[in-house]
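step=predict obj=Aminotransferase class V-fold PLP-dependent enzyme n=389
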Amino acid sequence: MDIDIDKARADTPGCARVAHFNNAGAALPPRPVIDAVNGHLELEALTGGYEAYEQASAAVERFYDAVAGLLGADRDEIAYVENATRAWDMVFYAIPFRRGDRILTTTSEYASNGIAYQQVARARGARVEVVPDDADGQISLKALETELAKGDVRLVSLNHVPTHNGLVNPAAEVGRLTRAAGALYLLDACQSVGQLTVDVREIGCDMLSATGRKFLRGPRGTGLLYVRRDVLRTLEPPFLDLHSAAWTAPDEYVVRDDARRFETWERYVAGQIGLGVAADYAVALGVAAIEERVTALAAGLRDELAARPGVSVLDRGARRSGIVTFTVDGHEAADVKLALREQGVNVSVTSGEQRFDPSGAVSAVRASVHYYNTEEEVERLLRALPRPA
């Protein structure tokens, strides 16, 4: 199924104002998402927050079915969380690590996750170990299999798509190895949900976190969490409230038995509704078609950049995503970003916070495409680049 690009752009008000290549930061939302969020905020303003929630209960509940359908999960395995970092934290800190447990991760790990590993290692005596890359720069499956065979691995945790170098880690292959070894598998899908097909059954992950604001085109301040049914009942969240648990006696409580044990009662209701609409929007377009379009646009941009003297493309991986990173000789990445913005082209800058891989600590321009971008916008980006010094 091909995407009607003209309709997708007509659905996206921002396309009339800017060539937006910062989708790995925050994508432009489509009109149905905007209307859903604004509509609920207006309802709250006119009727009251609690009353609006009661009137919109079907739309709130739709979030669980929409996200479950997007990910190939069941609705009781889905939680709404205020952002991807908090979703990841809630499930990571629920794992009962013991002294000597091993946490295996990748060289391209995101800074927030890396800090959490270190905190747990200090507090509980777990060990954080980095699995080396293969020749293409993604996690080495051979090295991972070797490490799993050594035993004591409580968790394998990796990003599906790193924030800074374009690659796609072999998530399903990792899932087959973790299942065989009996290790938990946590997938940070912050940069993959919405641009790639992400099926939790096919991947075999036990837990997955993602955001609303990036490729899924949902509202900022929204996130989602998937926890496999057989696993979630073994994990008690680090924080509980009257939504995630029931206070059954003065000295007793019972944690609820679905993924909503990782939620809190108070939440951004308009955002939850909008995120459900964004998930439905992506499914209606066809996630496979989205992936095909994004991958092709990114490949074309990489080829054009690589052919330019003085421009270095930094992306790695046997399989690559819609994230394209590069440098321009003689120009700081931040200066390139500002020069492009003056021409109505949005990009971002990678921060160089990958402490497990010193070679990844390079400031670079990050141009992340989405299906509503056009080949003409790619040309616009290329024309606006400063000349190498």
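step=describe
The two ends are 44 Å apart (CA to CA).
step=end
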